């Protein structure tokens, strides 16, 4: 590194680059900082050391290895991150209190989540992910708990525009059976946010070792999914209440499926026509006129 990081994003980029070669102690520090900069911003050096299971000297050496002036340099970059987030959310705090406040806050938070998520996507990352989802012999999608809904949606939408798409589940002990079908050259899409599902993380790692192309939809650079994916999309999940939002996840999954449909062109159109024919033959929907 030619110069120390000057922003939190630069710090994250450097930590991601170094993560595979870090010692276990330094890796725990890096992951803690990337996963929760808001908390680290106000921790003392002793609190961070205790939280990461290291001693204070290790924290000092870790900061120095990044070219920062001790732990205060790390905390300063985390506070910059917190300041940026505070500016983005300031308008929510100035809203008038009334019966519709939660609805307004939720709507505005989701708009901000989508905008921040999209703003972080590099064109090269997008193109590579769409190509993998379009061209891989088979696509496997996995997301559990809070991420089950967007994972199911992505699998459903992809099956509408291409063949050989599977949604991986852990129901009835079928995870091993689902993973056995993953082959080299397939595409494995993993979705998880903090706290990260053990099954999803392990499955994504297994798929990587198997030779599958990995795509991760996750919440921050400290996510273990970031280490097993060829393309990573960081999705904002902030919300005005105790519940985290999956709206940006939904928007991104729909956009990815749309990108695949566009890439496949005529092939996607034929798949959709076959789908519509089946739906008609099996009377999947009631008559629009109703009775």
Structural shape = globular
Termini Cα gap: 70 Å
Count of separate DSSP helical elements: 13
User: What about the largest sheet?
Assistant: 5 strands, parallel
Q: Please tally the β strands and state the result.
A: 5
Rg from alpha-carbon coordinates = 22 Å
- How much is the average pLDDT? 84
Helix content: 55-70%
Indicate the structural class: alpha/beta
Strand content: 5-15%
Strand order of the largest sheet: 2-1-3-4-5
Following the backbone from N to C, one meets helices and strands in this order, namely HHHHHHHHEHEHEHEEHH
Summarize the structure in short.
The chain is α/β, with parallel strands linked by helices. 58% of the residues lie in helices and 9% in strands. It has a five-stranded parallel beta sheet, sandwiched between helices.
List the helices and strands and how they pair.
Layout: H1 8-18, H2 24-35, H3 37-40, H4 45-52, H5 56-65, H6 70-93, H7 101-119, H8 123-135, E1 139-143, H9 148-161, E2 165-168, H10 175-180, E3 187-192, H11 198-210, E4 213-218, E5 231-234, H12 247-264, H13 266-281
Parallel strand pairs: 1-2, 1-3, 3-4, 4-5
Helix pairs in contact: 2-4, 4-5, 5-6, 7-12, 8-12, 9-12, 12-13
């Amino acid at each position: 590194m030619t110069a120390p990081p000057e922003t939190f994003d630069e710090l994250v980029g450097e930590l991601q680059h170094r993560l595979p070669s870090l010692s276990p102690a330094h890796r725990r520090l890096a992951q803690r900082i990337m996963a929760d900069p808001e908390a680290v911003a106000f921790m003392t050096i002793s609190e961070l050391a205790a939280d990461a299971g290291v001693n204070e000297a290790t924290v000092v050496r870790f900061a120095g290895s990044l070219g920062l002036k001790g732990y205060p340099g790390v905390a300063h970059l985390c506070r910059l991150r917190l300041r940026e987030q505070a500016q983005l959310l300031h308008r929510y705090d100035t809203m008038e209190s009334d019966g519709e406040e939660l609805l307004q806050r939720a709507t505005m938070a989701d708009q901000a989540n989508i905008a921040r998520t999209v703003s972080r996507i590099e064109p090269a990352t997008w193109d590579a992910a769409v190509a993998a989802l379009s061209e891989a012999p088979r696509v496997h999608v996995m997301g559990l708990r809070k991420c089950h809904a967007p994972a199911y949606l992505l699998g459903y939408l992809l099956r509408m525009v291409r063949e050989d798409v599977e949604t991986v589940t852990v129901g009835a002990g079928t995870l091993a059976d689902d993973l056995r079908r993953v082959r080299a050259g397939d595409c494995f899409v993993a979705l998880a946010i903090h706290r990260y599902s053990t099954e999803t993380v392990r499955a994504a790692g297994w798929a990587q070792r198997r030779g599958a192309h990995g795509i991760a939809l996750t919440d921050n650079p400290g996510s273990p999914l970031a280490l097993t994916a060829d393309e990573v999309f960081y999705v904002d999940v902030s919300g005005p209440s105790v519940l985290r939002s999956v709206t940006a996840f939904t928007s991104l999954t729909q956009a990815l499926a749309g990108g695949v449909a566009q890439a496949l062109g005529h092939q996607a159109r034929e798949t959709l026509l076959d789908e519509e024919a089946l739906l008609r033959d099996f009377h999947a929907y009631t008559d629009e006129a109703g009775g």
